[in-house]
Amino acid sequence: MKKLHRFVLLAFAPPLLATFFIVMFVLVLQFLWLYIDDLVGKGLDAVVVVELITYAAANLIPMALPLSMLLASIMTMGNLGEHNELLALKSSGISLSRIMFPIFIVAICFTLGSFFFSNNVLPYTNLKFTSLLFSVKQQRPELQIKPGVFYDGIEDYIIKVDSKDEETGLLHNVIIYNHSAKNGNKSLTIANTGYLRVTSNQQYLIFTLYNGCVYEEMQEEKNATPKYPFRENEFEEQESVFELIGYGFERSDETLFKNKSQMLNLQQLDVVRDSLRQGRDKNIDGILTQFFRTSHFAHNREFIETTGNDNTSYPYNITCDSLIATMSAAQIHRAAKNAVQRAMETKSELATQVDAVKYDSRQVNIHDIEWHLKFTYPLACLIFFFIGAPLGAIIRKGGFGTPFVISLLVFLIYYVISISCQKIARDGAMSTALAMWISSLVTFPFGVFMTYKAAKDQQIALPRWYLVFTKWIGHFWNNNKKSNNN
């Protein structure tokens, strides 16, 4: 390895590692912000939470790599320019392309590695993350009985309390309806006060009640005359234990999610996309065939199939006026009513079938989007290198402040365009190929322009209209300030 290459790589490695971990940290915080309500208050083990965060972080790597490459490239070339090292290298007869070559090789390695990760590792981590997150969401939260509200979260029991002391946890005027016998509302417990606690394993609820009474209707023998006897048991202190079914953490079956688009690699996506397209086309053909056989087109269709004549005219001359002239008013009214009813039935049936076709098309678009994402995010690493490295050489500003602002602005433009076009393509309003690559098509010319400007040692010239507009704003501001002072 040449000394120049070693020098540039040593200058590039620390910013790259630092920015990658910073970006990953920010993205993981965003994940926690989005799913904090699903994680808090469920008694999850630390191992489960760490596992979920690990899978979430792995899913964010394809997004973090392009932003890290962009930010690290700007910082590296900016540091070299700010400390006049870039100027010294150019004065020695070394071109900018040779200086950027080591970073270019790293960008290619990032692109290939990101593609391999997206195609082989990401489907596995997506499957693990989705199934684990579903399991966490399905776990019932820790029991919270609100005052004045009937709580039916415990199977076969309904609980109501009038008030609760927030400091001591003491409940007042407790009512418990017991439906465990499956014979209606035959058992009722009322207590003046009580305490509620859940065992550490989330399996049992312990209710300690004070100064209450249990009212219960007794069960008569089947052959006896029903008299509905009543039993009342008073108590000073009573402890009831309820089993909490479904509160323990259970992992979901991963096979429920393995056929989703995010859990498939390129080969699997190709197979599923072809199957979905064939199914959609077959469904459309079936709808059209059924429509012509059962709708008001059925008679004309039968005539064409029988005679082989595509002309819609009939061999005999029948007009609407001539038919109406031979009909009575009652017959005309009945015919119009039948026609309207037939048209409404056909419209309703077609609306349902159109919704089914839209759903099939949406599934095709979703899998097409996922197929293109295997390429767009990895290629963004290379595109952002051509933006970041020349831009850093032009602005010659190192550190973290200015490069971070510029990187964030460029990445936001790329990401907003990508997400917006994904939504449009998912709804079928745009070709998926164009929608998924339009963000790259927008940013790549900017990278070429930056590379050209940096290679020619030219600054980014502001448009003439921008300068004129800025001067006009300044002139207007000064005149307005003078008039206010007068």
Walk me through this protein's architecture:
By secondary structure, the chain is of the alpha+beta class. The chain is 63% helix and 12% strand. The protein is built from eleven helices and five strands, in the order ααααβββββααααααα. It has helices at residues 3-39, 46-82, 85-91, 96-138, 266-294, 298-307, 320-325, 329-395, 401-426, 432-455, 464-485; strands at 157-164, 171-178, 187-198, 204-217, 230-243. A five-stranded antiparallel sheet has the order 1-2-3-4-5, with no helix packed on it. Strand 2 and strand 3 form a beta hairpin. Helix 1 (3-39) runs parallel beside helix 4 (96-138), helix 2 packs antiparallel against helix 4 and helix 9 (401-426) runs antiparallel to helix 10 (432-455). The radius of gyration is 36 Å and the shape is flat. Mean pLDDT is 78; it is low at 299-316.
